[in-house]
Write a structure and sequence with these properties.
The protein is mainly β and about 300 residues long. It has one helix and 24 strands. A nine-stranded antiparallel β-sheet has the order 7-8-9-10-24-20-19-14-17, with no helix packed on it. Strands 4, 12, 13, 18, 21 and 22 form a six-stranded antiparallel β-sheet that branches.
């Protein structure tokens, strides 16, 4: 953390208002203007002190907190370093803002690739589009992961119970899924070889008390195309749609925290026992010199 003042950029249209911090280019607030209801988690450190960090250039943990390129090992903490860096404001209008982070001496000491990371936010009627652009500014192939980690208030109202809420999961064609396959996490925060199938009724996954006791649920291989939060009356009031090959569903294990994260990922943590190089990691992205990787996800209200 830099310890600097939390400087935020405010966006608004006729229906929505959003606030993004320069620190981490993190979406900190998203409200419907009509009622002023806040949908983003408040980052109370009692449960989890973040709201919507950008995960780059790693997602999750690497084995033994280090990774290898050739014969050289580098230290790396969970989820990379972008979430803890101050971004520069590249451009801003009433409804759209772009933030930029470039490599420096500090990043190159743990991640030896020149890069330009741009994070954009755009309001469009009832939705906000979160955009990522990664440019390889070096002269050799770079390897990276990138993902979102937005946390949404759940329950929305103080008198409601989280266990009366559900998640509605749809496939890439928008059809409600009958089941999904979860990649199980080990106690060390790495992926195991174990998979568990969750049966869904009308696409619904109830948020029962012990759902996240084993950490995040991970849907791999493009199983899902959108995940919605469903209130106690059965109304899908917020939906996150994506093209990412993986999506994580998470709330702090065994805390009954009043929020749920829906996380589109291009990448994942190491598998238990993985001993290969960075370029050999599962779901790793490669980018040639001068090339640009672009991706986005959308948060939409009913």
């Amino acid at each position: 953390m830099t310890g600097q003042e939390d400087i935020r950029i405010r966006l608004e249209n006729e229906m929505l208002e959003a606030q993004i911090s320069l620190h981490g280019a993190e979406l900190k607030s998203l409200k419907k203007k009509a009622k002023g209801t806040e949908y983003m988690w408040c980052a109370d450190p009692t449960y989890w002190g973040r709201t919507s960090p950008v995960l780059f250039p790693f997602i999750g943990k690497v084995r033994d907190q280090k990774y290898r390129i050739g014969d050289t090992e580098y230290p790396m903490g969970q989820h990379g370093f972008a979430r803890d860096k101050d971004f520069a404001l590249a451009s801003v209008s009433q409804k759209e803002a772009w933030f930029v982070l470039e490599d420096d001496e500090e990043t190159r000491s743990v991640y030896p690739f020149p890069f330009r990371l741009e994070i954009g936010y755009r309001l469009d009627e009832k939705e906000i589009c979160v955009m990522w652009r990664v440019t390889n500014t070096g002269d050799s192939d770079m390897y990276f992961s990138i993902g979102g980690h937005p946390a949404f208030c759940c329950p929305l109202r103080a008198w409601e119970k989280q266990t009366d809420y559900s998640l509605c999961i749809r496939d890439r064609e928008g059809k409600k899924m009958g089941y999904f396959v979860n990649r199980v996490f080990g106690q060390n925060g790495l992926a195991t070889d174990q998979e568990v199938t969750y049966e869904l009724k009308d696409g619904l996954l109830p948020i029962e008390e012990h759902l996240f006791d084993g950490d995040a649920l991970i849907l791999e291989n493009g199983q899902a195309g959108s995940v919605s939060l469903v209130d106690p009356k059965g109304r899908e009031y917020l939906s996150l749609s994506f093209d990412a090959p993986l999506v994580g569903l998470w709330s702090p294990p065994k805390k009954q925290a009043p929020f749920v994260c829906i996380e589109p990922w291009y990448g994942r943590c190491d598998r238990e026992g993985f001993a290969g190089e960075l370029k050999e990691r599962e779901w790793e992205n490669s980018l040639e010199p001068g090339k640009v990787f672009e991706a986005a996800y959308r948060i939409r209200f009913a």
